[in-house]
Amino acid sequence: MSYQNNTNAATATSSASYAGSTNYLGSSYQKYFTIDKATLQITWSNPQAIDYGTALSSTQLNAEANVLGCFAYDPLAGMVLLSGTQTLKATFTPTDTANYNGANAQVEIYVNTNSFTGFFQPIDMGGVFNKVKLGSTVPVKFSLDGYKVLCRSPKSPHVGVRPSGLLSGPCRHTYDTG
Prior knowledge:
about 180 residues, Immunoglobulin-like
């Protein structure tokens, strides 16, 4: 009995032969069969929530596989996500592509919203004083952890307009007039 290529994914051959004896005739038989690529397993749990402004790192992008290979993540390490529930994706490419299929996985991560507490500094108008006319739009410029933001307040009869609430992603700002 012999086997050929029966340990890797591909077509394999199994053959058996009997030379015979004084009471029995000799015979042989050959069979071809396919060995499919193995299915690998990825282990990846939903990471703990992070605060808005936290860059993704290996703490969140930490999927594991049961064979050697490499992961590609989307979004990439170093990216800062918007607040709310976000999906992280991983694509795994095994080193042994002849015997293993690649695989994908995804998890969810919650990004806590960022609340702003602090003071706004006046816009530098190069010596020109800001005058606000009733019903006009008031520009507000500020920085949040290094991210520059320029907003325009809705029309308001109050001169003391200030942004309040949660700042989450581009152009989602609420205002009050207190």
